[in-house]
Amino acid sequence: MISADLTQFINTYESIGGVITYFSQSNIAGQFIIILLIIASLVAWTLMIGKSVELNRANKSNGKVERDLARLNNILELTHESLPINNCAYADLVSEAIQAFYRHNGEDKEDKAIRMGHVENALQRAVAKNTIHYESKMVFLGSIVTGAPFFGLLGTVWGVMDAFGAISLKGGGTLQNLAPGVSGALLTTVAGLLVAIPSVFGYNYLLTQSKISITEMENFASTLADRIELDS
After folding, report:
1. Which alpha helices (H) appear in the chain, and where do they start and end?
2. How far apart are CA 123 and CA 115, in angstroms?
3. How crowded is residue 86: how many other Cβ atoms within 10 Å of its Cβ?
4. What would the pLDDT profile of 163-209 be if each residue is shown by its tens digit?
5. How far apart are alpha carbons 119 and 98 in whole angstroms?
6. For residues 136 and 147, what is the distance between their CA atoms, to the nearest angstrom?
7. How far apart are CA 211 and CA 62, in angstroms?
8. What is the pTM of this model?
9. Is the dihedral of CA 194, 197, 202, 207 positive or negative?
10. Distance CA 115, CA 101 (A)
11. Helix pair 89-103, 109-134: axis angle to 10 deg
């Protein structure tokens, strides 16, 4: 058992040593691209974890606002002081809708229609504002997903070009002379894929969750407008 663990440790150490060797064999451009990709990977993981936590918190806060409203007999009982103060999309929609409703005074049917027009416009603006918030950070993450493989490919092509150029300047060469430069060049492609593969799964998952949250928010806004109209 100890021997197997020791063998595994040695193999891991040799793999890490090989990667370091390949990195040292890369040209300056390749090393710069690898460092850039490492930074991009850290940024991507930070964005994915942060966005996931943000969406989970938003969903919990939205659910609480929805449950609180369900317990009200008349949603218009809410005053400016009793409006939900949770920092979430649903609370923002309720606040904007109630304030828009009381912004216009009047009791006849025409005035009621004008009031509901104000409410619907306020809800549309609030939905648009919160949609931008839900989609924030996704463009940057998508750029990393798209750009990482191309940066890796750029480093590889550049490295191979340098390796063959060096051989041609020497007037010839063997595979042993060519292999180190090519190995170092291929490392950038591996780095690009290691950044892009987990990022694309995280991006697709977060994009789907954001779209679901936006659709639920739009449905909540529609339900809120209907309830205000019925309770008025």
Report:
1. 2-25, 28-70, 89-103, 109-134, 138-169, 175-231
2. 12
3. 18
4. 777 666 665 555 555 666 677 778 888 888 999 999 999 999 999 99
5. 7
6. 18
7. 15
8. 0.77
9. positive
10. 5
11. 150
